[in-house]
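User: quick one, fold this
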Amino acid sequence: MDPFTIAAAIAFFGTLAVAAIAVTIRRIVTWFRDRGKIKASNANAIAFTLADRLENKQYTEVTGVFGGVPKRNQVVQGFYDTNTGRLIEARAIASSEAAEPEVVEQHEAGQGLVIYT
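Assistant:
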């Protein structure tokens, strides 16, 4: 899976609400756990986060989600169906607060994309 495939699916998903919260592992994991039924009911669903930017470093441009002045951290989190190529559910996170170092390291290693298993 590559960042551009998911970025393209996000562009066709429609409007995403942007949550203004700090980017932390705990918040990411909690959001996925609260939606555990998605993976349980769809074997093709993958959980992901895609960084538009983290700590002011641009990764993948996510078109149409983060308008206006860029924040320090802009991430899309969601579930992507590998069979249909569509997003199942997603949210956008934008924050001027520092992201947790672990979040930054994971996205750096995945060139902006992290898949959660």
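User: anything notable?
Assistant: The chain has one domain: 3-116.
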